[in-house]
Amino acid sequence: MPTDIVPIRRALLSVSDKSGIVELAMALAAKGVELVSTGGTATALREAGLTVRDVSDLTGFPEMMDGRVKTLHPMVHGGLLAVRDHPEHAAAMDAHGIGTIDLVVVNLYPFAATVAKGAGRDEIIENIDIGGPSMVRSAAKNHAFVAIVTDPADYVTIARGETSLDERRTLAAKAFAATATYDSMIASWFAFADQGERFPQTLPLVLTRSGDELRYGENPHQAAAFYAATGPVARGIGQARQVQGKALSYNNLNDADAALELIAEFRSADPTCVIVKHANPCGVATARTLVEAYEAAFACDTVSAFGGIIAVNRPLDAATAEAITGIFTEVVVAPDADAEAVTLFAAKRNLRLLLTGELPDPRRPGIAAKSIAGGWLVQSRDNGSIDEGALRIVTKRQPTSQEMADCRFAWTVAKHVKSNAIVYAKDGATAGVGAGQMNRLESARIAAWKAKDAAAEAGWPQPRTIGSAVASDAFFPFADGLLAAVEAGATAVIQPGGSIRDDEVIAAADDAGLAMIFTGMRHFRH
Predict the structure, then answer these.
(1) From CA 153, how far away is CA 162, in angstroms rounded?
(2) H or E stretch at 135
(3) Is residue 281 scored above 70 in pLDDT?
(4) Distance CA 147, CA 56 (A)
């Protein structure tokens, strides 16, 4: 049976990241621990004046094959795996002169960093660690007697020269998580980068929890946590720097991600502001200045904007920050912010300010996964876009240059609205957004109602749907949704096309004098 406290008499140290290893070795040596090490780690310890025994002295074999073979030996793994109070194990150790190893400190070759720097295939393969994971797994399996440390943050736990059973259990759990993560990164690289698979037979996916558990999930009775992707990833909400405000909730993170994904579509555009509520944009606008963009986006739906998420595509300035503080806002996402803007927000203790640095590339590849009962649905992320060559004008009337610009703007926003999605836009600003309805006709009507409410709130003589462009994320299955847009005052339409009733819809557009554009691409978002 394992004992609770195990003194450390012999430690094997072999690390790629040598941060803190000399200090740890000094603390262990002061406790009388024999130090065994390999290669560069042994050199670093000797240069610090420590007495170190080479692994080759332990095994009787030199390190060989450019260091590929050094710890893969019974003198090492026997010392790690032996059950100390098992008579047959003890007899085998005596017969072969195998000494016990009480502590292993290992961190693995930097595989992910090698991939991230764009190394060639041969260098990437050389950075697949074999001996390290083998020692980690051996020590972790035998945690009843052996302590395994894979994280420099745990050096303080073992520096005293002994470990408890609870500590060894915790360290073993972290060790198996470390090797699982490492193997997953390697498997992912082989599947996606080396073999070019889209959906491999086994999807290696390992995530690392970021910080503590969240306060709760979508609802207070649900537990939640945020897990960041492991390895090189595109910059996103998970990597943003939180300047101020209380901890982000599950819904904050989800909504902020929706806002960031949409504002990223405009990362090279003029100053643009996005306002999101419940993962749907309720106002989007592009203008000469950031504050003008915010004001135009806010005017689209002043009711829904309360308690929303705001994202901008330019560093936040004082004028925009002051305008935002006019109502309660949960989160503001920006590439950066000047000192005056940060000071203005500091007075709003509940407002979270997230700075992302460079906005992510909306065309980047990747996968999206969703859990369902009994499994997961996995698809490539929607990075689809349209260019001028893909657009097809199907009506008798050609769109004006302003209508074309408004169509493209509305189409970009509609991609990020829950289906069925209808977006009216005019002069680079949303006029009305209809989201998440069970039929397209109701989405068109709701978006028009919102535009009327916005006009009444602002004191405008007419809603901004008059003379607007309207985007539909999927085709109009019947002419009724199109006619609702006509009734709202739209003069141009952009939609995927592809319905068996396209001719009927085109005829209705011609009768109404509309210009209509087919994109050939759908953007459902369930």
Answers:
(1) 17
(2) helix 131-141
(3) yes
(4) 22
Name the strand (E) or helix (H) holding 244: strand 241-244
Catalytic positions, written as ranges? 141, 278
Cα 480 from Cα 17, distance rounded (Å): 65
Q: Is 372 within 8 Å of 350 (Cβ atoms)?
A: no
Whether this prediction's pTM lies above 0.90 is answered by no
Task: Determine contact, residues 517/492, Cβ cutoff 8 Å.
Answer: yes
B/e letters for 465-502, b = 16+ CB within 10 Å, e = fewer, are bbbbbbbbbbbbbebebbbbbbebbbbbbbbbbebeeb
Average pLDDT, the chain: 91
> Quick one: pLDDT at residue 40?
85
Contact 271, 290 (CB under 8 A): yes
Strand partners, 69: 64
Distance, CA of 252 to CA of 308 (rounded, Å): 9
Concatenated DSSP letters of 320-356: HHHHHTTS-EEEEEES-B-HHHHHHHHT-TT-EEEE-
Quote the tokens at residue 327. Answer: 């109502």
Q: In sequence order, what are the residues at sequence separation of 6 or more whose Cβ sits closer than 8 angstroms to the Cβ of residue 229?
A: 207, 238
pLDDT at 97: 72
**pLDDT band (50, 70, 90) for residue 3:** low
